[in-house]
Design a protein that fits this description.
alpha/beta; UDP-N-acetylmuramoyl-L-alanine:D-glutamate ligase; four-stranded mixed sheet; 13 strands; 34% helix; globular
Length: 318
């Protein structure tokens, strides 16, 4: 597919959340009622939509990001960060009466994290915004969204994508009530183990089930609950399935420094690979490599490795 700027790899339109992340780094998470000292602090661009849009861009695929920000200092910071990273910002909407979305993140020395989200301007991403973006969706190879948006907006985006013939990729994180038709249109539906169970995939799978066991689970859902399914399993790797087959990619052994945003790096890279015409199993392998590289560096979007580095780690050609 050729995008309207002449790039042969297609285009991804991301409709999603944008937050400004305030991250504290601690030795261990506090107990309820406990006050502890952080040994580091960072303010950075975040939100699943923004993270995934940046990951698509870093993967070398043209991207447009449709999001809402407040008319405040955080909104200016977010827009400036996107511009610095080289992403177009013409699809950003400023919402004067709402604050820019925010996330309060704590990262322990183990690499694990806790996140509290305040929706703010993200809640202004209504079905009407989707309708206003029809031309952008029509020109895309892939449209990608996440569970941080209102369910009605996700449902409308799926309807528009189906109508226009644009491939719809849904990362239902966190699990948000959407219609069965929306799930059925997802190609793929991208979930972690807990999100998969929340939508009825793998409810009988025991804790600690192997990658191959999850491959079978994904295969049983592909073509039914969703057109295709991808389940991420943290440090173990990920599985994928569609109506033609099912696949496993084990993750390399790495030392995790910060897992924040690694799943978004995976999902954005996956969508980028699909948009440029790679098969689902090849896209899965590249996305796993991107996620493994991301956890080895602190931060969210600044932890995403360049395209050449990710492809080399995945052992595939550019």
């Amino acid at each position: 597919m050729t995008s309207d700027d002449g790039d042969s790899r297609g285009r991804v339109v991301v409709v999603g959340s944008l937050n400004v992340d305030s991250t504290s780094y601690v030795a261990a998470f506090p107990e309820p009622g406990e006050t502890i000292r952080a040994h580091g602090f960072q303010v950075a661009l975040g939100g699943k939509g923004a993270n995934q849009a940046v990951a698509v861009h870093v993967a070398g695929v043209p991207v447009e990001f449709i999001a809402c920000i407040g008319d405040d200092a955080n909104g200016a910071f977010a827009q400036g960060t996107l511009e610095r990273l080289g992403l177009p910002v013409d699809a950003l909407r400023r919402i004067p009466e709402a604050p820019t979305g925010a996330a309060q993140i704590t990262v322990a020395d183990s690499g694990e994290n806790t996140v509290i989200i305040t929706g703010g301007a993200n809640l202004a991403l209504t079905p009407a915004v989707v309708d206003a973006a029809r031309d952008r969706v029509a020109a895309a190879a892939v449209v990608l969204t996440q569970g941080e948006l209102p369910g009605a907006t996700i449902d409308r985006l799926a309807e528009v994508a189906i109508e226009l013939g644009t491939r719809f990729v849904l990362n239902l994180a966190p699990p948000t009530p959407v219609s069965a038709a929306t799930l059925g249109a997802a190609d793929p539906l991208v979930l972690n183990e807990h999100e998969a169970r929340a939508v009825g995939i793998g409810t009988d799978a025991p804790a600690g089930a192997t990658l191959d066991a999850w491959r079978v689970v994904a295969a049983s859902a592909a073509g039914g609950i969703a057109r295709s399914v991808v389940v991420t399993l943290g440090a173990a790797g990920a599985v994928a399935a569609d109506t033609t087959g099912s696949w496993v990619t084990a993750a390399p052994r790495v030392t995790a420094v910060d897992t924040t945003g690694a799943g978004d790096g995976f999902t954005g890279t996956l969508a980028a690979c699909i948009a440029e015409g790679r098969s689902l199993p090849e896209a899965l392998g590249i996305a796993v490599a991107a996620g493994a590289l991301a956890v080895q560096t602190r931060g969210t979007v600044d932890s995403y490795a360049p395209r050449a580095v990710v492809l080399a780690a995945a052992g595939v050609a550019g």
